[in-house]
Amino acid sequence: MKTLAFIHRNDTHFAVGDFAHVLSVFSHYELGNTISPFLLLDHIGPEQLQPMSQRKGVSDHPHRGFETVTIVYKGEIEHKDSKGSGGIIGAGDVQWMTAAAGIVHQEVFSKAFRERGGAFEMIQLWVNLPARDKLSAPGYQSLTSDQIPTIELPNGIGSVRVIAGQFNGQSGPAKTHTRINILDVKMRSGQSATFNAEAGDTALVYLVSGRLQFDKTEKMEDAGLAVMSSNESDFSVETLGDSHFLILSGEPINEPIFGRGPFIMNSYEEILQAFEDSKNGELG
Ligand code: MN
User: Fold this and answer.
1) HSE of 66 in the Cβ direction (CA atoms, 13 Å)?
2) Contact assessment for residue 240 and residue 24, using Cβ atoms and an 8 Å cutoff
3) 257: CA distance to ligand 1 center in Å?
4) From ligand 1's centre to the CA of 79, what distance in Å?
5) Ligand 1 geometric centre to CA of 108 (Å)
């Protein structure tokens, strides 16, 4: 079994556009290829928002070289991009956007949510693309909650939503460029479950809420990221409180990471090219 390698934690919240409470859980700037193929995870909220009279969110901005995965837990986001894709992402839904060669998009509160206000919480995860796919055609997958299978764990201890990859023989709806599992797990206190991963795979556990324990002694509070060892296969998670966590695992992409702001490529030259192309309006 894989064991806990280390716990990574950031406690600083900052603002992104009009999203006022964003926790940068991890990024490639800090952890590089240790967490490959994952690049960055932001946890927005949970917070109570008042009704808004104006359109709010993050206005038009570009991306190149990777994919953004938006998981909405509470509230509603509206997406629009330069390829003509868009839609409403509500509670339980996931949006998987492949920026690849380039896209310009905006992420704002939906009109209905803006008018009523209320609880808001979402995760945005960035997933790297292998060099061969970084300049391929952009794509968009809308994964609504009814398309995401929920698997009940034995003895009523919890449930697992399979967003991407596999769990206990059930497949998630996301089409991915490399082998990835993204599982959204809820488990009652005092239970444990084993998750599959191959030897050599990256395996991460992000604790959205609750309290976990690894290897019978290592405790982790909410907003912590557990990075499991590469060696051995599979790993187990024990709950010390009712817990909600994300499992991110998969095959690492062992290629250089060169990222600046909204672009993640393999070299400095490719980043300069991305800024140049963006300036010339070639990403949208
Ligand atoms: Mn974006």
Assistant:
1) 27
2) no
3) 19
4) 10
5) 10
Residue with tokens 């509470």: 74
Distance 102 CA to ligand 1 centre (A): 11
Contact by Cβ (8 Å): 215, 263: no
Q: Which amino acid is at 176?
A: T
Task: Report d(CA 44, CA 22) in Å as an integer.
Answer: 4
Q: What are 191-194's contacts with CB under 8 Å, separation 24+?
A: 191/153, 191/157, 191/158, 191/238, 191/239, 192/236, 192/237, 192/238, 192/239, 193/153, 193/157, 193/158, 193/236, 193/237, 194/1, 194/234, 194/235, 194/236
Task: Quote the pTM value.
Answer: 0.97
CA distance 54 to 117: 12
10-residue averages of pLDDT along the chain (284 residues): 97 87 95 97 95 92 97 96 94 98 96 96 98 97 97 97 97 98 98 97 98 97 98 98 98 97 97 97 91
Task: Give the position of tokens 């817990």.
Answer: 243
Q: How remote is the CA of residue 126 from the centroid of ligand 1, in Å?
A: 9
Distance 125 CA to ligand 1 centre (A): 10
